[in-house]
Automatic annotation (TrEMBL):
Binding positions for [2Fe-2S] cluster per the UniProt entry: 31
InterPro entries, sorted: Glutaredoxin (IPR002109), GRX_PICOT-like (IPR033658), Monothiol_GRX (IPR014434), Monothiol_GRX-rel (IPR004480), Thioredoxin-like_sf (IPR036249)
A Pfam family annotated for this UniProt entry: Glutaredoxin
Residue ranges occupied by any Glutaredoxin domain in the UniProt entry: 18-82
Record's keyword terms, sorted: 2Fe-2S, Iron, Iron-sulfur, Metal-binding, Redox-active center
Lineage: Bacteria, Pseudomonadati, Spirochaetota, Spirochaetia, Leptospirales
CDD domains for this protein: GRX_PICOT_like (cd03028)
A GO molecular-function annotation: 2 iron, 2 sulfur cluster binding
Name of the gene encoding the protein in the UniProt record: grxD
Recorded superkingdom: Bacteria
Protein name: Glutaredoxin
Cross-referenced PROSITE patterns: GLUTAREDOXIN_2 (PS51354)
UniProt record similarity statement: Belongs to the glutaredoxin family. Monothiol subfamily.
Organism: Leptospira soteropolitanensis
Length: 102
């Protein structure tokens, strides 16, 4: 991965305490899994930043390489990769997501 792309991804991740790479926007998710993570975060009252990977193919492919995780959405808390939809939902159900984001 080229350094410029890595720096841009890291800058996005670190721009908010909770950050989501998703398809679409929080107001208009473009896939069910992205919509599920947005819904979970909103239900828990966790503020988050986001990036629409459909708007930038370099970031869309780069984030997969950056985390070695093949799918979108990808959630980060305090700069650390947490996971995708299923992991986020499981963490929300156990109370771990609120604790980690607090």
């Amino acid at each position: 991965m080229e350094q410029e792309l890595k720096d841009k991804i890291e800058s996005l991740i670190n721009s908010e305490k909770v950050f989501l790479f998703m398809k679409g926007t929080p107001e208009m998710p473009q896939c069910g899994f992205s919509a599920g993570v947005v819904s979970t975060l909103k239900q828990l009252g966790i503020p988050f930043g986001s990036f629409n990977v459909l708007s930038d193919m370099k970031i869309r492919e780069g984030i997969k390489e950056y985390t070695n995780w093949p799918t979108i959405p990808q959630l980060y808390i305090k700069g650390e990769f947490v996971g995708g939809h299923d992991i986020t939902v499981q963490m929300a159900q156990s109370g771990e997501l609120t604790k980690k984001a607090g």
